[in-house]
Amino acid sequence: MCTSIIYDSNGQHYFGRNLDLEISFGEHPVITPRNYVFKYRKLPNRKATYAMIGMAIVKDNYPLYFDAANEKGLGIAGLNFDGPCHYFPESAEKENVTPFELIPYLLSQYASVDEVKDALENVNLVDINFSKKLQLSPLHWLIADKTGKSIVVESTVSGLHVYDNPVHVLTNNPEFPGQLTNLANYANISPAQPKNTVVPDADINLYSRGLGTHHLPGGMDSASRFVKVAFVRAHAPEGKDEASSITNYFHILHSVEQPKGTDEVGPNSYEYTIYSDGTNLETGTFYYTNYENNQINAIKLSNENLDSDKLIDYELLEKQHINYQN
């Protein structure tokens, strides 16, 4: 399970996600430069027009991105969508893109959400695995750009659906329209103290601060996380500078992170937030924390040779850094 958001602060836009799973696959930051050639299963090989950075595993010199953003300020995250998800046989009338190719297919060619929406009209998500050992994951995608626009892309038995996203967050099931409808059940939640409307003429003791959020869900399930992160994001303040903005961004994501031991998915097996990441879509600076190391680490896309044709890998910094003051 996962959570993805786009957060606006002082004209900057930060896009990324929490990755929640029970096991790590060795994911780490990867830059794909402009001259890298993507070898597609059902399309001609294409050289990347735009460089990108994000979290990926690299197999057979191919970057399998969990999420990434390109140098033009377009970002995409793939989140678990088991159940409603459906991929299709090849179509002679469409561009046949496998789901593991979708992030590089879009980020290597397009610069905005509007361009992506046009491109997706001609895309068929075809049911082809990366390999026998690496089967397709059932996914849907949050896509956002530096204008602040975002969309959700879901492939179900009824076809490929593209939804405008007014709340700029995504978790997992149910399908996106159902998640939006569910928000109506929490429409009265507020950061402010509630007004006594239950018995207006009674002197009720508002015994605690924060009673306006009393019914805000806090479970690890996807519907609860959707409501909570939508609320926290909508009420998060803007930062004063880059450091405070990215700090606010991670506080939003960490409001729905999963500690180990709280989400059992099998005997002695627990899902947890393996990493949280985010990219400043204006500057191309990629930030991340992980379960073992909650220091914010940063990689600047512009500091690398983006005209190369070789992938650039970074070690995932997993050792906790503690600042001892005495």
Write structural notes for this entry.
The structure is a single chain. By secondary structure, the chain is α+β, with helices and mostly antiparallel strands. It has one domain (2-174, 237-313): Penicillin V Acylase, Chain A, CATH 3.60.60.10. The chain is built from five helices and 20 strands. It has helices at residues 102-107, 113-120, 176-182, 222-235, 242-254, and strands at residues 2-9, 12-21, 28-32, 37-38, 46-47, 52-59, 62-70, 74-80, 95-97, 123-125, 139-145, 150-156, 159-164, 169-170, 264-266, 269-270, 272-280, 285-290, 297-300, 312-313. The strands form five sheets. The protein has an eight-stranded antiparallel sheet with strand order 13-12-11-8-7-6-3-20. Strands 14-1-2-17-18-19 form a six-stranded antiparallel sheet, with helices on one face. The longest helix is centred in the C-terminal third of the chain and has 14 residues, at 222-235. It starts with a strand and ends in a 13-residue tail after the last strand. The relative contact order is 0.21.
Distance between the termini: 40 Å
Kindly state the number of beta strands.
Answer: 20
The CATH architecture can be given as 4-Layer Sandwich
User: What summary fits the major beta sheet?
Assistant: 8 strands, antiparallel
Q: Hey, roughly how much beta strand do the residues contain?
A: 25-35%
> What is the total number of structural domains?
1
CATH topology type: Penicillin V Acylase, Chain A
Instruction: Count helical runs.
Output: 5
Q: Strands of the biggest beta sheet: in what spatial order?
A: 13-12-11-8-7-6-3-20
Superfamily (CATH H level) name: Penicillin V Acylase, Chain A
CATH class: Alpha Beta
- Portion in helices: 10-25%
Q: What gyration radius follows from the Cα positions, in whole Å?
A: 20 Å
List the helices and strands in order: EEEEEEEEEHHEEEEEHHHEEEEEE
Give the CA-based shape.
globular
Structural class: alpha+beta
Can you tell me the residue ranges where pLDDT is under 50 for at least 5 consecutive residues?
none
Mean pLDDT: 96
